[in-house]
Write a structure and sequence with these properties.
heterodimer; A: 6-stranded mixed β-sheet; about 35% helix; rod-shaped; B: MutS, DNA mismatch repair protein, domain I; 7 helices; elongated; tRNA-splicing endonuclease subunit Sen34 (chain B)
Chain lengths: ~550, ~325
């Protein structure tokens, strides 16, 4: 019976056996130094060493606590030596694998891929592709598998070392060293990393077309939701019509004024010039003629010195309703005949029957009412400076209209022009809408304007990264949506500006772009997230 | 304020600690600038170390990589740390400890070049693909296979013997069976090809096949990637000369992490930020980097190379109210 020893090589060795047959725990490549006097490179293991490599430990020694400050003590020196020796022994260990566990591949420089000569192992689930009926690997995948000890790549019938792999597979045409560092880092963590192909991503527009949509909805969708123009378009036209109406009224008025002196009271505010000139001209002349004619006035002191007003304080108007005792003549004397039109004779007037017709009862008022009445009697509309500035009735009416407008929140001077206020305070509006109306800075989405940007050479998405827990049902033909996309740069490169970020986000679609920054062995991952400022809006 | 003003405000000799207090509001902590105390370290001896054999450096995608173990040790012996990039052969699927190659910082590369301690390795063996090489490789494989099968047979015999001698007073029938198996072993033992152990070398092993190896060593010239800026290189050289170990500190917002001894055994004490003397430093940047330093419990060191090959250091420490 032929015994085949292969089974002993598969699992772990019986510890007793391994201890007896081998003394050294690991195989150090530079133990060969003494043997290779003629050789230049000295890291090749002898067959006995290769054989002995079966029983290597697969554990990494744990690093102890570090010291704080070097104090030249022996203890520290010993610890340093121990750490360094451990370090060197780990680094100098060479990869030794059973031939049966290794997949063979061949490097094809013309296509820059590795073609597999033996069937692929478990890695085929997430790596590699088929071309011309053969299984192939991309250079970065092949290099990673070489480093893991699963693949042996031949070039011209000689096996490539890891160094050869780095130097041949990594270049600016395929994958750069920095990109491979990120690739390796992510693969060692367990992620599935595939190359990014910009043409395989459908643009957002194309994705929109795929949705079932009627033409109406499409049309409605094109309308901008946010518009900077003021909301109702009826406002400008209303003001226009009002302005037009005003003009019409004023021209009408001017014609009318010329014809007659009596005019109707129009509700709309009118331009003062046309009306007041006609009014004043006629009225003033009539007064002036009279005053100049009869200079007699009751009080005696006159306004002959050029004023065209009657001095009403000197002309006594009998107050028949007055309850004070002084004004109680039984009859009224006839007025000065100069004040009356000609041919009118007026005799004494008996007040008594008139007074009977007047209700002279005292009004009963509460204290508040009496106080208010007192203030009202004292209040004189003429005391207001603005009122005194009005030269005629039309101006006074305008003043009243202005005051009314101010009170109600729609001052005429603001609303009668082309540019009106953003919002009519008399109209109800929700707080949120109002905030949006008056907001000077509007939020913008990252992808706004991104489709117009031209492709730049410096920022490119390199890889699609898929989660490790999806490895079991991962299908290379239909990978699905990646977890994120990787863009690789270094700390010497400039920080990506908004343009670069917009470009990357546009290329990526709705998947976040992570920027991996490589710093001579350290990799840091950064990503930009969308953020919305909270607004205090209570509905 | 200008960096030169900052330096001239204090005594510039090394070892004297003086403090410069920035005026600030009473409510916020004041940043105290102190002269960096020079560490009690040894200065490197002048030329003895540099007589060592040259470190072989290979270029990959225009980055200087060190692959061979002897070169890695030599680089470490010169006080240069570098950064490991590859998977560790023992446990390739983890990121905690990485393996070869070692990537050199541009400043480290520059220093090696200055000391004439580096040599560029040829990027490929001249005879690669030639029939002679292939023949050699096949022969070595065959030899290895034969040796390994012999070893395997011996190993199996030993195992059976141990199993036999273990059972002293055991059933003789079992013993008989084992003895028979032992005898049969010599005739029927086969060592399959698939069981052979093969090495996947890390460093390029092909050069052992090439006859005139040493002739290929060239003096390491500038690769085109000069140290990024002169200020960084001057600072690196000065700090290395004082015995500190330096690695890159992009994650910490600075140029270098400064260790008082080997990084394997000590934590970094300083974050070095290189600023040239005539560059004006925005106060906000100073505050930001000081804040960062205090968060990671390291002292920030503003370094500026001066005119007479001396470097001016200013350390920032966040102190409480004074």
């Amino acid at each position: 019976m032929a015994t085949i020893i292969s089974d002993e090589f598969d699992g772990h060795q019986d510890p007793e056996e391994s201890r007896s047959s081998r003394q050294t725990p690991g195989i150090m490549a530079d133990q060969n130094n003494t043997d290779d006097k003629g050789k230049f490179y000295s890291e090749i293991l002898s067959p006995s060493e290769l054989f002995a490599a079966r029983s290597r430990s697969h554990k990494i020694p744990v690093r102890g606590q570090k010291d704080f400050f070097p104090d030249d003590s022996d203890e520290q020196k010993q610890r340093l030596e121990h750490s360094l020796n451990e370090h060197w022994s780990l680094l100098s260990e060479e990869r030794v694998e059973r031939l049966g566990n290794l997949v063979n591949g061949q490097w094809i420089p013309s296509k820059q891929i590795v073609e597999l000569q033996s069937p692929a192992g478990k890695f085929w689930q997430t790596m590699g592709f088929s071309a011309n009926g053969k299984q192939c690997l991309l250079p970065e995948e092949a290099l990673y598998l070489m480093e893991c000890g699963n693949l042996q790549v031949f070039h011209q019938d000689l096996p490539l070392s890891i160094q050869d792999g780095y130097e041949k597979f990594l270049s600016a045409n395929t994958v750069s060293l920095q990109q491979y560092q990120v690739f390796g880092h992510l693969k060692r963590l367990g992620y599935v990393v595939l190359r990014f192909d910009p043409s395989s991503e459908s643009s957002s527009y194309a994705r929109q077309l795929n949705l079932p949509q009627s033409s109406d909805r499409a049309g409605r969708q094109l309308k901008r939701k946010r518009s900077l123009s003021p909301a109702p378009s009826s406002t400008p036209t209303a003001t226009c019509s009002r302005a037009e109406a005003q003009e019409e009224c004023s021209t009408e008025k001017m014609e009318e004024d010329k014809c007659s002196e009596g005019e109707e009271d129009k509700k709309l505010p009118e331009p003062p010039e046309a009306q007041s000139s006609a009014d004043e001209g006629g009225g003033r002349s009539w007064w002036m003629m009279d005053v100049l004619g009869d200079s007699d006035k009751d009080s005696g002191h006159g306004s002959k010195s050029g004023s065209s007003c009657w001095d009403f304080s000197s002309i006594s108007f009998p107050d028949l309703g007055s309850t004070s005792r002084e004004h109680f003549p039984s009859d009224l004397a006839p007025p000065d005949p100069s004040l009356l039109p000609r041919d009118l004779k007026v005799g004494f007037c008996d007040i008594a029957p008139w007074r009977q017709k007047i209700n002279l009862r005292q009004v009963k008022m509460s204290a508040n009412e009496q106080k208010r009445e007192k203030y009202r009697r004292r209040w004189d509309v003429n005391k207001n400076r603005e009122v005194r500035r009005c030269r005629n009735w039309a101006e006074y009416q305008e003043l009243m209209a202005r005051r009314k407008g101010k009170r109600e929140g729609r001052p005429a001077h603001l609303w009668n022009r082309e540019v009106t206020p953003l919002h009519d305070p008399t109209q109800p509006i929700a707080t949120g809408e109002l905030l949006e109306k008056i907001s000077v800075i509007k939020p913008t989405h990252l992808l706004e304007g991104a489709s117009r940007l031209k492709d730049a050479d410096d920022w490119r998405i390199c890889f699609n990264v898929y989660q490790p827990n999806t490895v079991a049902d991962f299908k290379k033909s239909n990978p699905g949506k990646p977890y994120s996309r990787m863009c690789v740069c270094s700390f010497d490169d400039p920080v990506p500006d908004l343009r670069a970020i917009k470009l990357l986000a546009y290329q990526s679609g709705d998947i976040p772009v992570v920027i991996a920054v490589v710093d001579y062995g350290d990799i840091s991952f950064y990503t930009f997230k969308d953020f919305q400022l909270p607004t205090d809006v209570y509905p | 304020m200008k960096r030169s003003e900052l330096c001239s405000r204090r005594k510039s000799s090394v070892g004297i600690a003086s403090s410069l207090v920035l005026p600030g509001r009473r409510t916020c902590p004041q940043v105290v600038l102190m002269e960096a105390l020079s560490c009690g370290e040894r200065r490197l001896g002048s030329d003895e170390e540099y007589a060592a054999p040259a470190v072989g450096v290979s270029l990959c995608d225009s980055a200087p990589l060190v692959w061979r173990m002897q070169d890695l040790r030599a680089v470490r012996a010169q006080g240069l740390v570098g950064a490991l990039l590859g998977s560790l052969p023992r446990t390739p699927r983890q990121n905690g400890r990485l393996g070869r190659p070692l990537l050199l910082l541009p400043e480290e590369e520059g220093l090696l070049r200055e000391r004439r301690a580096a040599a560029a390795l040829p990027d490929r063996c001249q005879d690669w693909g030639g029939a002679e090489l292939r023949q050699k490789h096949e022969e070595e494989e065959k030899k290895s296979f034969e040796e390994q099968s012999v070893l395997a047979l011996e190993d199996r015999k030993l195992a059976l013997l141990r199993a036999m001698t273990g059972a002293e007073s055991g059933a003789t029938s079992a013993d008989e069976a084992l003895r028979r198996r032992l005898q049969a072993l010599d005739q029927n033992f086969t060592f399959p090809q698939s069981a052979m152990a093969v090495q996947l070398s890390t460093a390029r092993a092909g050069l052992s096949y090439c006859p005139e190896a040493r002739a290929f060593l060239q003096a390491y010239g500038p690769t085109g990637a000069e140290p990024r800026c002169d200020a960084r290189y001057q600072v690196f050289r000065d700090l290395r000369g004082r015995g500190f170990y330096l690695t890159s500190a992009g994650k910490f917002g600075g140029d270098f992490l400064v260790y008082p001894g080997d990084p394997l055994r000590f934590h970094a004490h300083f974050i070095a930020v290189c600023v040239s003397l005539d560059e004006s430093v925005c106060l906000l940047d100073v505050l930001a980097v000081a804040r960062l330093g205090s968060n990671v419990k390291k002292t920030v060191l503003l370094c500026s190379p001066g005119p007479d090959a001396r470097v001016c250091y200013t350390s920032l420490q966040w102190s409480g109210m004074i």
